[in-house]
Design goal:
This protein is α+β, with helices and mostly antiparallel strands. The strands form three sheets. A five-stranded antiparallel β-sheet has the order 1-5-4-3-2. It contains nine helices and twelve strands. Helix 1 (8-59) packs antiparallel against helix 2 (66-77), helix 7 (296-309) crosses helix 8 (328-345) and helix 8 (328-345) runs antiparallel to helix 9.
Amino acid sequence: MTYWPRSLFGRLALLLVIVVALAALTTAVVFNRDRAALIAKQFGETKIVQLKALRAALEGADEPRQRETLSRLGREYGVRIISEIDRPLVGGPSPPGPAMRDLEKRLQDALGSEATIRIAPRQGLLFVHIKAGDAGYWIGFPVPPRPPDDAIPWRAVAWALIVIAFLMIAAYAFARYLARPLTELRAAVERVGRGETPAPLPESGPSEIAAVNHRFNAMIGNLRQIERDRAVLLAGVSHDLRTPLARLRLGVEMSARDEATRDGMVADIEEMDRVIGQFLDFARDDSQTAPEQKDLNAIVGACVDRYAKAGRDVRFSAGELMPLPLRATAMSRLTSNLIDNALAYGAPPVEVSTVRRGSDVVLDVADRGVGIPAGETERLKQPFTRASAARARSDGAAGAGLGLAIVDRIARLHSGRFDLLQRDGGGTVARVTLPVGA
């Protein structure tokens, strides 16, 4: 199991989140270090001024009243003053670190080399040794363990979190902006795969995306033109052939004296006419017809009735269905092709049924023929593909190889799926699955 996102949008969003997080972390570290250095510098400058003032005051202090003077100056400056005579050494050595070394160096530069730092952690004081005249003093400044200035800067943290939130939102929007054209392109390619014609893609945005969309639109235009040319060619040839076929059939019926010969020739002409009809059906562009709410049972039932009236063993079992968005003429042609295929290549009875299964409606046309090998099912959906010798037409005709291709195209036009399945007990089930919301 991998946590790395597979989509481009997910990877862009993750990359931007990582970059923003690293930038925020780096900023926090740098801010914290600079803030500590700034506080140390500000502390040093302030205390140097106070120490110079204290040194001047101590140099003028009366010796007899020294204790009283030290106490008074300590109250005035908010510090603790200890004479070196009373305590030669106070506290412990200052903790190592660049900030403390820098502070001690600046104190020595301003007050002399005798200015050293000692720490009294228990008292919370930082002592600085100075010389005032001939006497030495320890000046203790209060340094709380966590003074307010050293506390966590919650206002800065709050602002940082707000900025990070806005950056995250901007990163998300930017990733969506970059991934949206690819998502639209993927959806358009899927529509082309289903045999539909997608709307032109916008040729804007990043230059690479605009170039890809431009080429895709050009390709769709070429495919659309090829499809129109093919439809015109098939429709024109098929239409032009039907007229001489009708005249030929009329002449055969009127002139042929041998009834068997006449019937054979008429059957050949009818087969040719049926093939031409399939060419015309295949050339039709049903996508130009808007779907309407129709009762699938009524469409299928009308087709089955026509075959039953013609004496064919076709049975219909209708399930309880709700109206669906259908192209009625195309669905009637789909049903007729499935029944024709079952009668021509299978064996009666042909059982037609409809049923609701979850969010789908299923139309089954089952026969009792020899069945279709598993490796042949997808091949037979291709145009101009005929069945193998093991599954020949019952009347011996070759067929045009367009019936199942027409069914597959109409099913995909309705966002459905067409499958050829093995039937229990022998035979084939031609199944069309349509989504309820198609």
